[in-house]
Amino acid sequence: MTTISSAAGELRITRATMADYDAVMRILREAADWLTSRGNPQWEHWYLEVGESILRQQIEEHEVYLAALDTRSITTVTVQWSDTMVWGAKGADGLAGYIHGLAISRSVAGLGVGERMLEWAIGLIAARGRRYARLDCLASNVALCRYYNDRGFTVMGTAMPLRHYTCRLFEREIKDF
């Protein structure tokens, strides 16, 4: 368990287990609802069997983290050590960690919790001796692309995973960790 400070309070971060499946899925679906309400249906797969299967696999592979404020789970992030589906051959170069599924409960929106979890994930990647943090988001999500740019990520191009949507690829070199 790790503890980090945020404007919402002290967050306790643990690696999710199958016992945490419902809490992680609740956070992901809350984020999916919020995104869809804003005209961005990119996370609707969390309501489908494929999304449920993906989450079970990610938890079993020890890639999912859950943060709690007091006794309430409020944020989740997945860190993978390869990602060829989105990044192609570069996704297996051993130089990076890949951040996915960063989601927060709306109850802590605007308190910097997402940014603290992002930085925590980058620190986890650095602790594994990786040189880069990589992530992707829907290319049409201008606000989120700007958010990652503002946090030191550089656009590395685009990809079309499974030919379903176009995502923008971001990379941040890890220094000082």
Describe the SSE topology.
Elements: E1 2-6, E2 9-15, H1 21-37, H2 49-60, E3 64-69, E4 72-80, H3 84-87, E5 96-104, H4 113-127, E6 132-138, H5 142-150, E7 154-159, E8 167-173
Parallel strand pairs: 5-6
Antiparallel strand pairs: 1-2, 2-3, 3-4, 4-5, 6-8, 7-8
The averaged pLDDT comes out at 94
Q: What overall geometry do the principal axes of the alpha carbons give? A: globular
Helix content: 25-40%
Helix count equals 5
Task: Quote the CATH topology.
Answer: Aminopeptidase
Classify the beta-strand content into a percent band: 25-35%
Give the helix/strand class: alpha+beta
State the CATH architecture.
3-Layer(aba) Sandwich
Top-tier CATH class:
Alpha Beta
The helix/strand series, from N terminus to C terminus, equals EEHHEEHEHEHEE
**How many DSSP E strands?**
8
Oligomer: single chain
For the biggest β-sheet, the strand order reads 1-2-3-4-5-6-8-7
What's the CATH H-level superfamily name?
Gcn5-related N-acetyltransferase (GNAT)
- C-alpha Rg, in Å? 15 Å
Low-confidence stretches: none
Tell me the number of structural domains.
Answer: 1
Describe this structure in words.
An 8-stranded mixed sheet has the order 1-2-3-4-5-6-8-7. Helices cover 32% and strands 32% of the residues. The protein has 177 residues and is α+β, with helices and mostly antiparallel strands. The model has no long low-confidence stretch (mean pLDDT 94). The protein has helices spanning 21-37, 49-60, 84-87, 113-127, 142-150, and strands at residues 2-6, 9-15, 64-69, 72-80, 96-104, 132-138, 154-159, 167-173. The chain has 5 helices and 8 strands.
